[in-house]
Amino acid sequence: MRNTTVYPGSANGVVTAPSSLDEALSAIVLAAITRTSVRGAGSSVDTISMFNGLFAMGAKFRQQEDVVTFYTAPKKGSANIECTHKVLVFLLPLCIALGGEYTFLGEFDSHIIAGLKSLDIDWSVSEKGVTIRSNRQNRDTALEDETFAAGFMLTLPLNESAKLSCSSGKKFAELTVAIMQDFGYRLFDQEGYSIAKHRKVDTNYIYSVGGDYGKSAYLLLAGFLSGEVGVTGLLAGSMQSGRSVTDEFKDLKLRVNEMNGAVFAKKSRIGEAVIDVSGMAEPIVALVLACFCKGKCVIKNAEKLSDERREEFDITAKALQSIGADIIKIGQEHFITGSKKLFGGNVNAHGSQNIAMALAAAGIVSEIGVTLSNAPSLDVLQRLGVTIQ
Q1: Residues 6 or more apart from 38 whose CB is under 8 A from it?
Q2: Any domain includes 342
Q3: Segments forming the whole domain that contains residue 60
Q4: Is there a single domain that holds both residue 267 and residue 320?
């Protein structure tokens, strides 16, 4: 990652939404299990890591354009697997369901380790990484948190008599249930999830991954602040957690329209408002919009966000302050006086695509631009006419 400067200007045009990562990873696992195909999974670090991990587990597949077809399913065995944290939470449950001994290479954060401690499995940590051992017992799985919940739900087809329950809630389930239904598995939910009915899908079946509503929010943000932006490739009936972003924009009285799998944003500012970000799909998008409001905004309940989202929010708020945003935190509330333009300056994106996109959008309507260190690629903004160097 290098320094990237976003110059003042405007964002205009239409782009295709990036693939939904959670949807893509879930669909890839099910396509591997059922020896079917997935279209539009993308080529992110995580999707490539998923394909490499499944290959290490014995899966065989071929790719033609944007369609990947599995002709051999993963199987019980022993392997060293190098994968991202995001992929680990899908592959580890699959390894347990298949049986065998697998070592996931690398260091893993406290969140992953806490999730492992909640599992009733044989596992250990060494200098190499995390090793799990499984004899593929047909048994129910009761989880204390959601870290591995979606991954275990995807393995139910390998053990149709088993049941999955999660005491911390069901937020993970909505999208996963919808994807499994498309692959022919109808789930029964009574004190836990289990397979109620299985309609075998044809091996020629191709699951199409929809665009990511959450990621699209950052592109639409650039449109609201500076021009007119359209994002295509979104599925109107999507069960993604980020699907609510369009309704949230409408609630803020922004100029947003949906039409035939596309969302369009026109330059507009929110009025004075009290914004509860605790249940919002993309809280830092709301934070940036508040910095350009007509009057004053109060943002509340940021402390109720997940640890990851709260850290993202705090980093973005401090960065916006450093480039001229009038943000005052009193207790747990952020009081913001809106401005038509921020001054600009140097900020750190901390390797986060979300933070980088949010600050870049603010940079488009700044006096001198914004220079981001540790920022992932912002090429998509260049396709909207934004000057980036």
Answers
A1: 24, 27, 28, 31, 67, 68, 206, 207, 208, 209
A2: yes
A3: 21-208
A4: yes
